[in-house]
């Protein structure tokens, strides 16, 4: 018998270890996360996806990581978030963010 999913269960976010050695939880993709992405990048989801494809810049990924951390770490500034990713971790962080965003593609 297949396990039933509890639709009221809190969605789980991805875990990522940053430069300070702490494990952080990225917000799961929810309606709130999508709305925050639209607000953070000042465009709708179509515009956000286009911006992500056009501008694979560190600025975009820093902001994206900051947005994904806001649910559990609301007092953390974007500058603080950026300092938590050292150059050797950039590829891993971008992959984790990209994997999280791939949940949008059904």
Polypeptide structure, described:
- By secondary structure, the protein is mostly helical.
- The chain has one domain (15-104).
- The protein contains 5 helices and 2 strands, in the order ββααααα.
- It has helices at residues 31-41, 45-54, 58-69, 78-83, 90-101, and strands at residues 15-17, 23-25.
- The protein has a two-stranded antiparallel ribbon.
- Helix 1 packs antiparallel against helix 3.
- The radius of gyration is 14 Å and the shape is globular.
- The model has no long low-confidence stretch (mean pLDDT 85).
Write the layout of secondary structure elements.
Layout: E1 15-17, E2 23-25, H1 31-41, H2 45-54, H3 58-69, H4 78-83, H5 90-101
Question: Nutshell version of this structure?
Answer:
By secondary structure, this protein is mainly alpha-helical. The chain has one domain.
What Rg, in angstroms, do the CA atoms define? 14 Å
Question: Structural class of the secondary elements?
Answer: mainly alpha
- Count of discrete alpha- or pi-helical segments spanning 4 or more residues: 5
H and E order: EEHHHHH
Unreliable sequence segments: none
Can you tell me the number of structural domains?
1
Largest sheet: 2 strands, antiparallel
- Could you estimate the helical fraction of the residues in percent? 40-55%
Strand content: 5-15%
User: Average pLDDT value?
Assistant: 85
| Span between termini | 25 Å
Using the alpha-carbon principal axes, give the shape.
Answer: globular
Compute the number of strand runs. 2
């Amino acid at each position: 018998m297949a396990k039933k999913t509890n639709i009221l269960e809190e969605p789980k976010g991805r875990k990522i270890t940053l430069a300070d050695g702490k494990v952080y939880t990225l917000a799961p993709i929810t309606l709130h996360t999508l709305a925050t992405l639209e607000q953070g990048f000042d465009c709708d989801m179509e515009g956000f996806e286009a911006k992500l494809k056009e501008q694979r810049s560190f600025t975009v990924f820093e902001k994206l990581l900051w947005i994904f951390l806001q649910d559990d770490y609301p007092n953390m500034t974007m500058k603080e978030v950026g300092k938590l990713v050292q150059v050797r971790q950039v590829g891993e962080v971008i992959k984790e963010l990209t994997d999280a965003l791939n949940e949008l593609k059904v």
